[in-house]
Amino acid sequence: MKHEGISRAFRILPTILVYGLFMLMILVWAFPVIWVILTSMKHRTEIFTIPPTIFFTPTLTHYVDALTGNDILPGIVNSFLVATGATIVTLLIAVPAGYAFSRIRFPFRDKLSFFTLIAQMAPPIGLIIPCFLLLNRMRMLDTYTGLIAVHMTLTVPFSIWLMVTYFQDLPSSLEEAAMLDGVSPFNTFLKVVLPNAWGGIGVTAIFAFIESWNEFLYAVVLTGSNTKTAPVAIFGFLAAEESRWGPFTATGVMIMAPVIVVALIAQRHIVKGMTMGATKG
Fold first, then answer.
1. Least enclosed by CB within 10 Å: which of 55, 156, 180, 197?
2. What is the assigned CATH class of domain 62-275?
3. Distance CA 16, CA 233 (A)
4. Given its phi and psi angles, is residue 116 left (phi above 0), alpha (psi -120 to 50 degrees) or beta?
């Protein structure tokens, strides 16, 4: 009995270690988020208290200050417009491109697919000056269209790759059956493929939205007072004379919130879309 207990302990030890490691990883990831949320609800004097206060009376003063100054509210609106526009245009390009790469044979297909992945590896810092010069020549600096176009260099390559892998996992039997019934290739894609690809489209949309919503480097260089996004506007609270950490963290929470809400709302639809891709026997 004693040996059985020892052997059983050795059998469950790896499971305990794995769960412990996962809990540690979750804690490391969640700690900064929790800290920002708590700091955003502390009074100004409590933010700098050492040791930090865990129990305190919450206040929404910093949220009011953030929304009434430093162009935060217009920045959030601008971020939403740019992220939504970039997501829509990215899907219009990535979905048909992903289907073409995965289903259609055409010259230089493999080379073009490889070039798409290479484009994703280009560092944004190396593209800032060319993008600035190009948008300046086209009179598109400080415009929604210009920023959306630049954000697409970040969202489109990886989105195409996501859709290629998703379409490759979808069975082709439904498409073949539709073509045997005389359905055109375009209608097959529109009425047969897309309804079974909502899971992949949802994942791609979330990726594109988050990537554009959080982008800072291009936005700080290519925008001005008209199209300044929230990640740029938030730094108005940090100054050499005084850094207003309360409104700064409150704005950070407001920037994180839409991303979390989008992911939670879309989760059910993504799972539903994935199950719709099954082929009946």
1. 55
2. mainly alpha
3. 45
4. alpha
